[in-house]
Design a protein that fits this description.
Distance between the termini: 92 Å
Largest sheet: 6 strands, mixed
Number of domains: 2
Helix content: 10-25%
Order of helices and strands: HEEEEEEEEEEEEEHEEEEEEEEE
Length: 313
């Protein structure tokens, strides 16, 4: 029973350490997937240096080992260099002098090759991004030891790729939505800009004295809007609708270009129209107003597009 328990304990201790995997090209070059919950075993040999390589954007902040006298730790950018070293031991005070009568100070060092088992310790490295935990062991150079250990970050790389994929999908969806919106706007503009078929040319015009310059070259309606065309010799007047109950009311209009004409489009079928510019005045009468109505009232030139009022305006 005791043997079984010892085997289980031994297996548990071995399993707790993560051992870097060998490169397929040289077993002294190793790689390992980072896991903050694992302790990584690093084996070094006397007279050799071991290098740890972290992420490109990573820098060491704190480096602490349990046996700083026996290990030299150097950091450079995203690299950490580890090397076993000799350490001095305190000598018993002795009164020794040289041939000239001067006192001699004796120093002695413990070399790592003499007691390699005593160099076993741990190493903690904190960087600007992560925390790393290591066990350091000193082994004979004939044994397998680490020249170089490269850390990889598959989980973070997957998260980065997932973020980039999501960002790409969002960008593509936004681009598709913009393209669809542009197509709809172009289709709407095409509908609204299309030339309508006149239904009524029966308009009569009265031009006041000196008002010829604001008189339209033609007038018609298409059953929805009223159109007044002006060539480039004419001035564009202000447009008013007139009826006996309300008097003059400014008309809702916009201007379109038809061939060589600038066309004032009045947003309704008008019965009586007044054109004004300073003292100039032109009156226009729709003689067929209400004679040939459409099957229903439309709010735009296109039967597919409906104009609605926004905020009551």
């Amino acid at each position: 029973m005791k043997k079984i328990i010892l085997l289980v304990l031994s297996f548990s201790i071995a399993f707790a350490l993560t051992i870097p995997k060998n490169s397929k090209y040289d077993k002294r070059i190793n790689h390992i997937n980072f896991n903050s919950q694992n302790v990584t075993l690093i084996k070094s040999a006397v007279g050799y240096v071991t290098m740890l390589q972290f992420a490109l954007d990573e820098r060491s902040v704190n480096v602490v080992t349990g046996f700083s006298d026996g290990w030299e730790i150097v950091t450079r950018e995203n690299y950490v260099f580890i090397k076993a070293k000799s350490y001095p031991v305190k000598q018993q005070e002795q009164e020794l002098v040289d041939a000239n009568g001067k006192k001699i100070k004796l120093s002695s060092f413990v070399h790592p090759s003499s007691e390699p088992q005593n160099w076993k310790t741990n190493l903690i490295i904190t960087t600007n991004k992560r925390i790393y935990s290591f066990d350091l062991e000193l082994v004979n150079e004939q044994e397998h030891f680490n020249y170089q250990v490269n850390f990889k970050y598959p989980l973070e790389e997957k998260e980065r790729m997932d973020r980039e994929k999501l960002q790409l999908e969002i960008a593509q969806a936004q681009a598709a939505a913009r393209e669809q919106k542009q197509k709809e706007e172009e289709k709407l503009a095409k509908e609204l800009e299309r030339k309508t078929i006149p239904r009524n040319y029966d308009f009569m015009m009265h031009i006041n004295e000196n008002s010829e310059s604001i008189a339209p070259n033609f007038a018609y309606d298409d059953g929805v809007f009223t159109y007044l065309g002006f060539d480039n010799t004419k001035a564009m007047p202000s447009v008013f609708l007139y009826d006996e109950a309300n008097g003059e009311v400014i008309a809702n209009t916009h201007i379109e270009k038809y061939a060589e004409y600038e066309v004032i489009v009045i947003h309704q079928i008008a019965n009586q129209i007044l054109l004004r510019s300073g003292n100039r005045l032109v009156g226009i009468k729709n003689n067929s107003y209400g004679v040939n109505p459409l099957d229903r009232t439309y709010t735009t030139k296109s039967k597919k597009v409906i104009r609605t009022l926004k905020n009551g305006n």
